[in-house]
Amino acid sequence: MINRRQVVKFGAGMLAAQNSLLAATEKGMAPADHLSLIQRPIPGSGELLPVIGMGTSRTFDTDDDPETIAQLKQVMSTFFGSGGRIIDSSPMYGNAESRVGDVLRAMDNAPALFSATKVWTTGREQGIAQMNESARRMNVDRFDLIAVHNLQDWQTHLETLKQWKAEGKVRYIGITTSHGRFHDALLEIMRKQPLDFVQFSYNIADRAAEKALLPLAHDRGIATMINRPYQRGSLFGKSRGKALPKIAGALDCSSWGQFYLKYILGHPAVTCIIPATSSAKHMADNMKAGFGRLPDSSQRAEMLRIFQAL
Ligand SMILES: NC(=O)c1ccc[n+]([C@@H]2O[C@H](COP(=O)([O-])OP(=O)(O)OC[C@H]3O[C@@H](n4cnc5c(N)ncnc54)[C@H](OP(=O)(O)O)[C@@H]3O)[C@@H](O)[C@H]2O)c1
Question: What is the arithmetic mean of pLDDT over 174-181?
Fold first, then answer.
């Protein structure tokens, strides 16, 4: 539940959107009008999540000097103030889990966080120790989601995670990749294992996930968390300095960033996206993609044609 005091004012339009989000959230509904933050259900539970989350790779792998913490606090305040909830991290991202924890501790009000991290090691005891350490570093009592990072020793960690879920030590479990070469192995795991979430890369320049991952996730009722939505930022190299196309207006997009995120959200099997940024301005931009109209399949085809012609 989002606390009204946590809502940061971004002007009349955004505030109206947040108010309708609050009203809809309080009724337990997914808001549908164009001023409300779009939420989608986790198929396994029906729990609603805002479609735009936040990644932390590189952007939160920083030192802990006061200036950096203040900057990251601005990024995170903008995120929560716009209705964001999901923060995705990993022990693989250097200091990122610790910086998330530092900033959460520095927040004035406890935010409505959906905490997600990963296990990235080999061996049962090492996995358990790492997950406990991640909770300490990120300052959470219990993770909402823990996923096996890049399939590493997945048989071992999935057994632990299934047990932790049964014992109430974690709410959801999953597995991640960002490498196309792992897709076949990931598909096999998705067919056989009781996963709540699967995380992989998908964006307008890398559509390999459309072939089998997204359809299978839909068929198996597995929530999808999309990483690298901007292909690590390289998409902006193509659109920099180019005017937004007319279709952007029809989809309530005021930037190329929103254009790229809405292309992804137009796929019905996408549950949420986790773009990463170290800039409060970019965060505000990214969060706007979670409001307004989304493309249908013919609009997505047009967006793709436009991107490929850039
Ligand atoms: N195997 C895995 O589990 C796996 C693999 C890859 C990624 N992930 C997760 O997915 C998250 C996202 O992927 P990613 O960080 O690799 O790449 P990404 O989100 O595709 O791109 C991040 C880059 O985009 C820039 N950016 C963000 N918003 C922008 C905006 N509105 N306008 C202009 N530039 C913008 C950022 O620069 P600024 O800082 O300047 O904004 C940053 O350089 C990761 O942080 C991580 O949490 C998981």
Answer: 91
State how far the Cα of 264 lies from the Cα of 202, in Å rounded to an integer.
7
Establish whether residue 97 lines the binding site of ligand 1, counting it when its CB lies within 6 angstroms of any ligand atom.
no
Give the domains, in start order, of the chain with CATH numbers: 37-308 (3.20.20.100)
| pTM > 0.85: yes or no | yes
The residue among 76, 153, 98 whose CA lies nearest residue 122 is 153
In this predicted model, what pLDDT tens digit does every residue of 237-254 receive, in sequence order? Answer: 999 999 999 999 999 999
Per the prediction, the chain carries an average pLDDT of 91
Q: Is the CB of 239 under 6 A from ligand 1?
A: no
23-37, 135-149, 192-206: least confidently modelled range = 23-37
The vertex-61 CA angle with 101 and 7, nearest 5°, equals 50
| Predicted confidence (pLDDT) per residue in 265-306, tens digit | 999 999 999 999 999 999 999 999 999 999 999 999 999 999
72 lines ligand 1 (CB under 6 A): no
Assess whether the C-beta atom of 152 lies below 6 angstroms from ligand 1: no
* Beta carbon of 117 within 6 Å of any ligand 1 atom: no
Maximum CA pair distance of the chain?
55
The pLDDT value given to residue 180: 82
The residue to mutate among 279, 281, 288, having the most atoms of ligand 1 within 8 angstroms of its beta carbon, is 279
**Exposure class string for 217-237: b at 16+ Cβ within 10 A, else e:** beebebbbbbbbbbbeeebee
Does residue 275 contact residue 84 with C-beta atoms inside 8 Å? no
